[in-house]
Backbone:
């Protein structure tokens, strides 16, 4: 089969379409004919040689797909050939065919295209895990979502809105409108404003209950300042670096703060299955009714995977970047 391969670890120019062996599904797996795959920051890090896939996972990039079941393992009972599915997988998405655990595959909600469905799994599961499982956000609370216009950010805004929380986001000014359309109550331009000062002003020095953060080091001190007593900080990435030398960690004690670090790809299959099941119970009907929606910025043909990676690296996207897999 054809797949996007990494010639050698490095820049986006190292991506090209090549020939690889078609994967064989295990007894509890599906072989899916892939029509769309989504791009994530993890793909860029893996391409650069900084984020190897979990043991036993495909070396091919791509963590989320949408397509049709082509064949199934011997113990699979739920799915049949031709079923339209989407889901999260540990690797292998940028290819004509990919394998996925049958319990991680989900039916594509009615009304959604393959491209839209491929934009759901990673970002919505990550956002749901952070907001519902980790921070346990409540309807009378305030939440600050950094990178509000990113894939996870746009998903997090929608989930927090359905919960009924008051939502604050940081994003560049040109991306504020889409964040407000999705449900953000307050928007902060991180390029021209100190978000900690803005939060204190907007909350009358009360602070927020929950922060979802991807930046880490440069934001850590201001995140602590922005949280109210018994606040929760969920850290999902370290895009700004891992050092936070100027933080006054006494605030963690004085405010009784909880700091949670979270990942998803490295979790066990059992954990991911539970999360996927819980999220689908929460969301499936909401996607069909339009109460939740994947935000798609741009669709690239997979032969232009290098351009798609460069587009993400330049932070041009609002929401998801999708690869259309063509024969």
Residues:
């Amino acid at each position: 089969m054809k797949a996007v391969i990494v010639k050698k670890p490095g820049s986006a120019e190292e991506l090209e379409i090549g020939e690889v062996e078609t994967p064989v599904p295990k007894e509890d797996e599906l072989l899916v004919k892939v029509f769309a795959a989504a791009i994530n920051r993890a793909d860029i890090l893996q391409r650069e040689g900084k984020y190897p896939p979990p043991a036993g996972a495909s070396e091919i990039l791509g963590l989320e797909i949408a397509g049709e079941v082509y064949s199934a393992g011997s113990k699979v009972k739920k799915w049949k050939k031709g079923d339209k599915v989407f889901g999260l997988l540990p690797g292998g998405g940028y290819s004509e065919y990919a394998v996925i655990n049958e319990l991680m595959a989900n039916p594509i909600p009615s009304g959604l295209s393959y491209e839209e469905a491929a934009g759901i799994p990673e970002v919505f599961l990550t956002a749901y895990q952070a907001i519902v499982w980790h921070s346990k956000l409540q309807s009378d609370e305030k939440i600050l979502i950094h990178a509000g216009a990113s894939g996870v950010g746009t998903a997090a805004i929608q989930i927090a809105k359905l919960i009924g929380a008051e939502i604050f986001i940081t994003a560049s000014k040109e991306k504020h409108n889409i964040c407000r359309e999705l449900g953000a109550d307050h928007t902060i331009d991180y390029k021209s404003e100190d978000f900690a000062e803005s939060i204190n002003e907007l909350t009358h020095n009360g602070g927020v209950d929950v922060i979802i953060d991807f930046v880490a080091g440069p934001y850590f001190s201001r995140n602590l300042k922005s949280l109210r007593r018994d606040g929760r900080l969920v850290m999902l990435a370290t895009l700004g670096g891992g050092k936070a030398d100027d933080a006054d960690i006494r605030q963690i004690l004085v405010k009784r703060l909880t700091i949670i670090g979270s990942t998803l790809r490295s979790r066990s299959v059992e954990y991911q299955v539970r999360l996927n099941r819980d999220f689908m119970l929460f969301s499936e009907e909401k996607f069909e009714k339009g109460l939740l929606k994947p935000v798609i910025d741009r669709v690239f043909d997979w032969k232009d995977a290098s351009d798609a990676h460069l587009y993400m690296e330049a932070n041009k996207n609002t929401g998801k970047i999708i690869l259309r897999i063509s024969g």
Observations:
- The domain at 123-261 is CATH 3.40.50.720 (Rossmann fold).
- The first strand starts at residue 2 and ends at 6.
- The first helix runs from residue 41 to 47.
